Amino acid sequence: MFNPTRRTSVRQLLVAAGALTAIALSMAPSNAAQPAIQSAPADCPKGYFCGYKKNNFQQLGFRYKDCYKQEIPDGMGSGGSWYNNQTRGTDTYFYNEDGDYINHAGGAPSSDAYAHWGPVWYVKNIC
Fold first, then answer.
1. Predicted confidence (pLDDT) per residue in 14-30, tens digit
2. Three-state DSSP class for 94?
């Protein structure tokens, strides 16, 4: 504990600051979209948000370019993946069966190689 009457060395302060930083980082949310893979999958052209039926961008289920809420196709299952290859910074929102907002993809380029399509019924590109 810090004692203002005791002399504290710069080294001690740096060690304490490093410990606090490590604690703060360990408490950060871990459900954010994963960083984009190096390049977009070949079947996801520039300007599109692409949803895949399987993990690791396998078996394209849909690709949407328009800026309105669209229903995803049946058969997307509970696994899958997605790649946001829209214009840099453009986001996509996910909605449930009732049309209520669930989450978002994050600005392009972004991706999730291990997504969960189960609760998602609609996506909307925010252009």
1. 334 443 333 333 322 33
2. strand
